[in-house]
Amino acid sequence: MGARTIPKPVPESDEDLLFLMANLSPRLTGLPFVVWISPRGNAQHAVRVKVSLRPKMVPSEMASVTVEPPIKEIGDARQLSAQQLKLLREWIDLNRDVIVKFWNGEIEYSDEAIAALKPIRD
After folding, report:
1. In a domain, 3, yes or no
2. Whole-number pLDDT of residue 7
3. What is the number of structural domains in the chain?
4. How far out from the chain centre does Cα 100 lie?
5. Is it true that the peptide bond before 70 is cis, omega within 30 degrees of 0?
6. Residue 48 burial class via C-beta count within 10 angstroms: exposed 0-12, middle 13-18, buried 19 and up
7. Average pLDDT for residues 100-115, to the nearest whole number?
8. Residues 38, 20 contacting (CB under 8 angstroms)
9. Cα end-to-end distance, the chain, whole Å
10. 121 or 68, which is more confident?
11. Which of 11, 38, 43, 70 has the greatest count of CB atoms below 10 A from its CB?
12. What is the residue range of 80's domain?
């Protein structure tokens, strides 16, 4: 008999997904804001990261940004300045592979993803 595989839990709600998101502080990214990465879950869109300009997560104040080029902010209410988006683009370009692997479940645990990420340098 072959080895049994246990399916990974798929988040059923946005609250479940928030629990699985990894928050990356400025200390880890070199950015002046917090970046959130997550597994795909039930998302029907391409890979995205979330950004909160304040340390506390307030979902209505978070920016959603595409990871695949062209990297851009999604949604009607823009949260990021041109300079903030420029810095985020640099960081995404540096870490795209890790972000995508975490999104796709190739990196299963957030601590593994965090360890593989690189900060930008001034």
Report:
1. no
2. 41
3. 1
4. 9
5. yes
6. buried
7. 95
8. yes
9. 55
10. 68
11. 38
12. 14-116
